[in-house]
Design a protein that fits this description.
Radius of gyration: 21 Å
Number of strands: 11
CATH topology of the largest domain: Rossmann fold
Number of helices: 17
CATH class of the largest domain: Alpha Beta
Order of helices and strands: HEHEHEHEHEHEHEHEHHHHEEEHHHHH
Structural class: alpha/beta
Strand order of the largest sheet: 4-3-2-1-5-6-7
Helix content: 40-55%
Bound molecules: NADPH dihydro-nicotinamide-adenine-dinucleotide phosphate, magnesium ion
CATH superfamily of the largest domain: NAD(P)-binding Rossmann-like Domain
CATH architecture of the largest domain: 3-Layer(aba) Sandwich
Strand content: 5-15%
Amino acid sequence: MSMNLRKQEKRPVKSIAILGSTGSIGRQSLEVIKSFPNLLKATVLTAHSNDELLIQQAKEFLPNAVVIGESEKWQRVKEELAEYPIEVLSGQQGLLEVVRREDVDCVLVALVGAAGLLPTYAAIEARKQIALANKETLVIAGALIMNKAKEKAVSILPVDSEHSAIFQCLVGEARASVQKIYLTASGGPFRGFTIQQLEDVSPSQALKHPNWQMGRKISIDSATLVNKGLEIIEARWLFDTEAIDVVIHPQSVIHSLVCFVDGSLKAQLGTPDMRIPIQYALTYPNRCSNSLKPFSFQDFPSFTFEAVNHDVFKGVVYARHALERGGNVPCILNAANEIAVELFLQMKIKFLEIYHVIEKALVKIPFIANPSLAELLETDIFTREFLLQHYQKI
Ligand code: NDP
Ligand code: MG
């Protein structure tokens, strides 16, 4: 007993590799790590293009290694960090190497898009705990990732606020007691808009999310509700159920709910602040007090709920289709959406054309029933090439 107590008191510092430390989730993760110096340490940081911020973060957090995605920036990062005992790697190879390092206990995957897939897979193979923000990984290869995690006895802790909420609601509950999961959605900046009103909306309007400050890609996904579609697929794999519904809750205070077989509902609530679910994933199974602003009922005097208008915002419809067909269809959906978002942000297509791009890919790209990892990577590349050729605008 006394041995156990001593063990708990002397909990070792958890070493974390943050993939995508320069992004919205990555930066907030560093804030969380900074506030728990006796519990958490960032031993690896990675960026794709933002060498400036990576260098700054490296000097402040003193990780053992950093990765800069764009190889041509390696020299500069190396020179800037020459006086520090920090290994500097580059490219995708660098990412695949750092997730296997001995000085890494947990890999926080905060990359955006399909780039998260292979590093996550490699981290699971190396038996690292995964804190997963990158939902695209589970959308593309949910079955393979979850099977590999089971085989290697690796836990995948959700960072996405809805999935963190469900994860928290399920603590102490038997799987058989769950009737249904409800994912909440804010509805995004265009909630209530008609098709006509969406006709000419601009990227800057679409990027203005009412409740969350996020990266560009997920902000557009929230405006189309494709984000909620991707989250249905993410939840299907994390919680092994297809009984998943979506409800619009514009205040984003109820982060999601679980309905149990006895008709009881459990919800997880809090201020919309990603540092809360990030902290839960990094300190799980413990809860640690922090200095975030306490929840104020005065700030949120009412909670409201609406149904999704699936005729206008089709993200959820695509996700249901992709789950029903299975195979490489969720991968096609993800790749098409990434291309469509990029084309929209570059003002090469209009907002509503995002849906056309996705539909074109879902119809045209060949179906594979039980794809291997290699076939999923091929599907991802093929879908992108097909769409870029077709739209010939990028
Ligand atoms: P950001 O765009 O803010 O950050 C993305 C990060 O990934 C950056 O560090 C970026 O590097 C890096 N990156 C971009 N492309 C590549 C690539 N090809 N290879 C390697 N690294 C790359 O995204 P967010 O932080 O908003 O989102 C990250 C993930 O978390 C997404 O999957 C998103 O869906 C999910 N998520 C985000 C939430 C949020 O509040 N932001 C909430 C819930 C989930 P650099 O900047 O140096 O180019
Ligand atoms: Mg979310």
